[in-house]
Each structure stands twice: as structure tokens, then as C-alpha cells.
Design a protein that fits this description.
The complex is a heterodimer. Chain A is of the alpha+beta class. Chain A contains 15 helices and 23 strands. Chain A has five domains: 42 residues, MutS, DNA mismatch repair protein, domain I (3-Layer(aba) Sandwich), CATH 3.40.1170; 146 residues, no CATH class; 110 residues, Dna Ligase, domain 1, CATH 3.30.1490; 43 residues, no CATH class; 90 residues, no CATH class. The longest helix of chain A is centred in the middle third of the chain and has 19 residues. In chain A, 34% of the residues are buried. Chain B is 24% helix and 20% strand. In chain B, the strands form two sheets. Chain B has an eight-stranded mixed sheet, with helices on both faces. A two-stranded antiparallel sheet of chain B has the order 1-2. In chain B, helix 5 runs parallel beside helix 6. The chains are: A alpha+beta, B alpha/beta. At the A-B interface, helix 14, strand 12, strand 13, helix 15 and strand 14 of A face strand 5, helix 4, strand 6 and helix 5 of B.
Chain lengths: 489, 246
């Protein structure tokens, strides 16, 4: 943990505290460096060794991030500083389908984030902790199994004071099993109550309540990159590490994310932000990652990146979902996820849905809106919305509207559009909009907000007309002449 | 079949093979393995393999002029898809969709996604088809589609419950296409005045179509009414009286 929490790491490297090596990586170990050596000795053995001072703050932050990720498995997570994490998995064995599955998933998750944990599963938290300290990789299903595993442990494994271990050794007690066999009263007098109480807790004879890790109210996690990244695609791996922590946090707090932001710290001290918005609130790791990749694919980095921070901006409580009884037939990512990717690639303004507006002027009768997939589900459950239907006898409207009316030539037989137009209906008078004549309104076009003149006051006579090619058009006449405004496609 | 009777063993196998949806005899229309959605025009359904627009396959519409009823042709099917709560997508539409008209046709505008795809039309269509979350995808890819991207689109649509319609120009009729159904649309030459839509099925699974179809589409307001008054009222654009009446 002390080593892996450090950014900018290159092999061989080691972490020192108070002039002594705390931990070193495999390359350094191969060169003869070992924990506990003096720094000068280690540098003598391996001059190329890169040495870092231990950074407790950074380690604590990394442990917090890992605890958030632990929310994937269980809401009862507790920290065992400086480098331990206790997950209470007794309650969620059935959900995952057994201890082995959880262990596999946890180890795979750790590996994906770049951690190499030592682990143990035991009926008591302290027992599991000690087994993990002793090397780990063991699984004790019940108390007798735990007892026999603990009995084999060295007396120096539990984080007891050094004099306790030394005194026990002076009595000839090297294994915990031997300590267990001694009369407790006498031992208590000799080495104090603390170690023996801990032993009882580890063996499950005394309850051992844990202080739970409190998942933070707001998620904000910082990651310093091991090396400067100059291409946006290179951020995907680091982003993945942050995203798994975010998903664990969302899971533990029963939340769904609607928007989050990736703050990118550049090496020249500047910051830039990348907003990730989801079509529907979700906490699907793969989906977050796909969206992030889509954004990173389009991102141009202004300067090399040295740190990333992920914050969850908009979250909402998840109502819980029910699994379907029968397997859903549709394969694929689904509409919401697809829309997210489209919006990421084409821009938010390029992917929208329509909404009718109660407005006489045709230009103003359509509003563009962000697709809302949550409303959709509620809407269908209610069985369609008859409220949106136009009143009976309403004059017909064309499916297509031209962006702006196109002037038409006028001949003796009336207006022409690819030949003479035959009027099919009586005129429909539309006269409205005196209130916004001469004003400007902002409208999203592409990425920018353009100021365009408001539609303003219109006084028009609309007709449906058809030319000899069978094209049916919606045309109008106003004071300045004939215009084509829509198509009955 | 009598010629095959000596080969009794193969006879059974042949019957099995013929029962497959994707194998059809030259004189009949194919029965498609995927689902079809009725076009809402009985005379057209009779001519389409499976009795309707095919889902999970590309359908190409070749049309040169807009406004001849090419979209009205699809409205009954689209309205049915929308009524089932499905999402529809318009990719790179040539004009602006007018929400009140779509709503009046029974298509919920809030589930009608409009994608202004620009140069990314092919990618967008493929993503929409492959997502499996859309009931209908209508796309106007323009000239950006080559044979390879068409093939990709067909693969993306295959096996998914999506009605995929591509609008292409009539000049594409001579180029080969992987779409199993291709229809050329045009105004009916004989009945031009009545505003009927002529369909020529260029390609379908089954025997080739012999004659073009002529459909009378009820485009809203297309029925000429008796005009009781003058078709053109004299406009006094600036008159306060006209404003007061309105």
C-alpha cells in the first residue's frame, strides 16, 4: 500500500520512513534491497534505486477511494488504517453466489485498479485481519477452522507492542496456538489485558464491533497519474480506476448518477473539466467507461496531464429495480446508452427530441428538448397521453417545415414551385406574435448559442397546394408575396 | 415433387429446408423469420414478404422529390410502433420536423429523437440500429453511404426488432445494395392529379414484382374541398382591422 499509493513511480523504487526502507518493489528486491534496511545500505546495493518518502496523507486518500469501491460488495466497510480494509460479506453471500465468487471479484477489481492485496476471509474481523497480515490467501469458513489457522500464526503477526512479542518469546511461546493454551489469568498479569482481549476477539469469543466507514456525502476522488499523459486516450485507464470507486460509492449509498465531471489537472498548473452526462441516471461501470472513452476520443489535451479528479455532480436516489422474470429478448446497450454516446460524439444540441408548443406561429410550435428516458417509462405505464392530441377538426400541419420560408415565383396562374401550384384548401389565416417583433432570442445551433431574430409578428394566409409532380406543399401569402413553408411528405 | 419421390430420404430433408423462413421458392414470397409490421395499406402488405415492413432488415426508399407522400406511407406503421412505447429516431432529416404534425399522426414527439448527424450519419445510424433500444430508425444519409457502410448497417440491424428505413436518391437504384427490400417512390403518372403515390418494388425476397403499385394516401388535407369562398382573400397586411378580427 505505501508503495502503490505513490504517483510517478518507476522501477526500481522503494519507500522510506525515518531513514529506513519500509517497502520496495520486486525489481528492488531482486537487487538485494529489503524492508528494514538503512537507506544508505539500500543505495549502496542499488544506486539506481528511486526513493520516496512515505506519504500518509496520500495513503489515507487511496484507502478511502478503495473503501468506496468496496461498496460494490457490501455497505458495511470499515477501515483498518494504515492499509487495511474490512468488508463484512456474511450478509451478501447469496447475492453474489458464494464466498469464492466475492473473493474472485474483489481480487480482479483490485488488480484492475493496480493494487496487489493480501486477503483472508474469516468469521471474525480481527481473525481475517491477522490472517491477511500473515500473508493471507486463506479462507476460514467457521470458528474451528479459524482457530486452527490462528494457532499456526507467529506471535509477531498481530500488531502488538514489540515488548509483548519479546516477553512471549522469552516464555518460549512463538505461536498463537501456544499462547491460547496457557492459563489466561497468569498471562494477563504478565503481559497485560490488551493482547489477550484481542486474542479473544479474534477467536470470536468476545464480540468485536467495528467502526463503519462512512461513505462520503459527496463523491470527489483525486488520482495522481504515475507518469505524465499527453494523449487523451491514455487517460482511460486512470479514469477507469476512478469510475469503479464512483460506482462502489453509488452502490453503497443507493444512488444513481446523472452527471459527473472529470477535472483534468495539467502539469502547467491549469485545470480543465470534462462533463459526462448520462441519458438516464445509472451506475453501470461499463457504461460510464464507454461514455468516457467516447469523450476522450474527441478530447484535445492542451498540456500533459498529471492528475485526474472525478466528482459526482448530480445524483439521485435509486428506487431499486426489479429483475425481469424472463430474459429480455433485445440485445444491445439500449436506447438511453446509445443516445449518450451520440450526444458525446455529435454534441448535445445535435441529438434532441421534439416537444409541441401551443403556439399559432408554425416556427414556434416546435421546441427542442433533451431526451428524457425516465419520463418515457412512466408515460407508457399510464397508457399513452391523449392530452397531447390536437383538437378534432384542427387544420392539418405538414410533417416537415423549412428552416425559413422560401420565396416562390408568382405567375398569372398563381404561385409556382417546380411548376404551377394548385391550391387544395381555403386559406387559413395565422396572425400572431406582435409581442416579440424586433426582439432577439438565443437558440442553440451546434455548439454555440446564436442570437437570431425572433419570429415576430406574422400575418399570413396558409394554403395546401400541389404541383404537377405530386409534391404537396404548405405555402403562405403575406404582404410581400408567396412563400413555401412546409412539405406534406 | 414427384420427380424427387425415389429419393425418399432427401424428400423429408427438402420439405424441412423449404419450411425455413429464409428459403423461398421462386414463385412465392418469402416468409421472413423476423417479425414484420403491417404497413397499414392492405394492397401493399400483399406485395411485401411477410405481409408488412420487415423489422431487423434495411428497407431502402428511393425517391428524388420530397413531398410526394413518401413519409405518409410509413405513418401507420410508425404510429403503431410509437403506440407500443417504442422510440423512433430521425437521422439527418432533410427539413425540420414539425412537432404538431407528428403528434397528430400518433407519434409521441417526446420519443422522436432527431439526430443532426452531419458527416457522422453512417456511424450514428449504425449506433442507433445496434443499440436495440429503438423501434424505428429513419435515416437520410445523403451520398455519404458507400456499399461497405450499407453492409455494416444491414449487419447492425439484423436480428433486432427495429424498422430501419433509409432514404436514398433514385440514382442509387442501379447500384447494388445489401438491403433486402428496395422500393422506388414517385408520383403516379396516370393519376397525377389525384395525388396518388406510385411504388415500384425493385427488390424483395421472392418473385420480382411485376407492376407498380398505386396508393391513395390520406395526406392530411389532401382531399380537395368545395371552395365556398374565394381561394385568395385580399390581404391588407398592415391593417388594424384584420388584426382585430384575428
Amino acid at each position: 500500500m505505501p508503495l502503490e499509493a505513490l504517483p510517478l513511480r518507476q522501477s526500481p523504487s522503494a519507500v522510506v520512513a525515518r531513514g529506513r526502507i519500509v517497502v520496495c518493489d520486486t525489481a528492488a528486491r531482486a537487487g538485494g534491497v529489503a524492508a528494514g534496511q538503512k537507506l544508505s545500505t539500500a543505495l549502496g546495493l542499488l544506486p539506481a534505486l528511486r526513493v520516496f518518502e512515505r506519504d500518509p496523507v496520500r495513503e489515507a486518500a487511496a484507502l478511502d477511494e478503495l473503501a468506496c469501491w468496496g461498496g460494490h460488495f457490501t455497505p458495511t466497510v470499515s477501515l483498518q488504517p494504515p492499509a487495511g480494509l474490512l468488508l463484512e460479506i456474511g450478509g451478501c453471500l447469496r447475492l453474489f453466489g458464494g464466498v469464492a465468487v466475492i473473493v474472485d471479484k474483489a481480487l480482479a477489481g483490485c488488480a484492475a485498479q493496480g493494487w496487489t492485496p493480501s486477503w483472508a476471509v474469516a468469521p471474525t474481523p480481527l481473525g481475517a485481519w491477522w490472517l491477511a497480515l500473515a500473508g493471507g490467501g486463506v479462507l476460514a469458513n467457521d470458528l474451528p477452522a479459524l482457530d486452527s489457522l490462528l494457532a499456526g500464526l507467529d506471535c509477531r503477526v498481530p500488531p502488538w507492542p514489540a515488548e509483548v512479542a519479546a516477553r512471549l518469546e522469552s516464555y518460549g511461546l512463538r505461536r498463537l496456538g501456544e499462547v491460547m493454551q496457557q492459563p489466561a489469568a497468569g498471562l494477563r498479569q504478565r503481559i497485560g489485558n490488551g493482547p489477550l482481549d484481542e486474542l479473544l476477539r479474534a477467536r470470536g469469543e468476545v464480540p468485536d464491533p467495528q467502526r463503519l466507514f462512512i461513505f462520503p456525502e459527496r463523491f470527489s476522488s483525486l488520482l495522481e497519474l504515475p507518469s505524465r499523459v499527453e494523449h487523451a486516450e491514455g487517460l482511460a485507464f486512470a479514469g477507469h480506476r476512478l469510475i469503479v470507486a464512483l460506482c462502489g460509492w453509488l452502490q453503497a449509498r443507493q444512488l444513481l448518477a446523472r452527471a459527473c465531471t472529470l477535472h483534468i489537472g495539467h502539469d502547467d498548473g491549469t485545470q480543465s473539466a470534462l462533463a459526462l452526462r448520462f441519458g438516464e441516471p445509472c451506475r453501470d461501470e461499463a457504461r460510464f467507461l464507454r461514455l468516457l472513452r467516447e469523450h476522450l476520443g474527441r478530447l484535445q489535451l492542451a498540456a500533459p496531464v498529471e492528475s485526474l479528479r472525478l466528482t459526482a455532480d448530480e445524483t439521485l436516489l435509486s428506487g431499486g429495480d426489479s429483475a425481469s422474470l424472463f430474459a429480455e429478448a433485445t440485445a444491445g446497450e439500449g436506447a438511453a446508452a446509445c443516445v449518450e454516446r451520440l450526444r458525446a460524439r455529435l454534441g448535445e444540441a445535435a441529438v434532441q427530441v421534439l416537444a409541441p408548443v401551443a403556439e399559432h406561429r408554425p416556427e414556434c410550435a416546435t421546441r427542442w428538448e433533451t431526451p428524457d428516458f425516465r419520463r418515457n417509462s412512466g408515460f407508457t405505464a399510464a397508457g399513452g397521453g391523449p392530452a397531447d392530441e390536437p383538437p378534432v377538426g384542427a387544420p392539418p400541419r405538414p410533417l416537415w417545415l423549412l428552416p425559413s420560408p422560401q420565396p416562390l415565383g408568382e405567375h398569372t396562374d398563381g404561385p409556382h414551385w417546380h411548376g404551377p401550384l394548385q391550391l387544395l384548401t381555403r386559406g387559413e389565416r395565422i396572425e400572431s406574435g406582435w409581442w416579440d417583433s424586433g426582439e432577439m432570442r438565443g437558440e442553440m445551433r451546434g455548439e454555440t448559442c446564436a442570437e437570431i431574430p425572433a419570429t415576430g409578428d406574422i400575418r399570413r394566409e396558409y394554403f395546401i397546394a400541389r404541383n404537377r409532380q405530386g409534391q404537396q406543399a404548405w405555402i403562405f401569402r403575406d404582404a410581400t408575396g408567396w412563400f413555401l413553408h412546409g412539405l406534406f411528405a | 415433387m414427384s420427380a424427387l419421390s425415389p429419393l425418399a430420404v432427401n424428400d423429408v430433408a427438402l420439405a424441412d429446408v423449404l419450411a425455413r423462413g429464409d428459403i423461398w421458392r421462386g414463385d412465392a414470397l418469402a416468409r421472413l423469420p423476423g417479425q414484420c409490421i403491417s404497413s397499414g395499406h392492405p394492397e401493399l402488405d400483399d406485395e411485401l414478404p411477410g405481409g408488412g415492413w420487415p423489422c431487423g432488415n434495411l428497407t431502402e426508399f428511393l425517391v428524388d422529390r420530397s413531398g410526394i407522400g413518401e413519409l405518409t406511407l410509413l405513418l401507420p406503421a410508425l404510429a403503431r410502433l410509437a403506440a407500443d412505447g417504442g422510440w423512433l429516431a430521425l437521422v439527418a432529416p432533410p427539413w425540420l420536423p414539425h412537432a404538431p404534425a407528428w403528434a397528430a399522426a400518433g407519434i409521441a414527439p417526446e420519443r422522436l429523437l432527431v439526430v443532426r448527424a452531419g458527416k457522422e450519419a453512417a456511424w450514428s445510424i449504425e449506433a442507433l440500429l445496434a443499440s436495440g433500444g429503438f423501434a424505428g430508425v429513419l435515416a437520410w444519409p445523403g451520398s455519404t453511404l458507400d456499399a461497405r457502410s450499407l453492409r455494416r448497417l444491414q449487419v447492425a440491424a439484423e436480428g433486432r426488432p427495429v424498422f430501419a428505413a433509409l432514404w436514398r436518391s433514385a440514382s442509387a437504384a442501379v447500384a447494388p445494395s445489401p438491403a433486402p427490400l428496395r422500393i422506388a417512390l414517385g408520383p403516379d403518372a396516370e393519376a397525377r392529379a389525384r395525388g396518388r403515390l406510385a411504388l415500384r418494388i425493385l427488390k424483395r425476397r421472392g418473385r420480382p414484382a411485376s407492376r407498380p403499385l398505386s396508393l391513395d394516401l390520406d395526406r392530411s388535407g389532401s382531399r380537395p374541398r368545395a371552395l365556398a369562398g374565394p381561394a385568395l382573400s385580399l390581404l391588407a397586411a398592415g391593417s388594424a382591422a384584420a388584426a382585430a378580427v384575428a
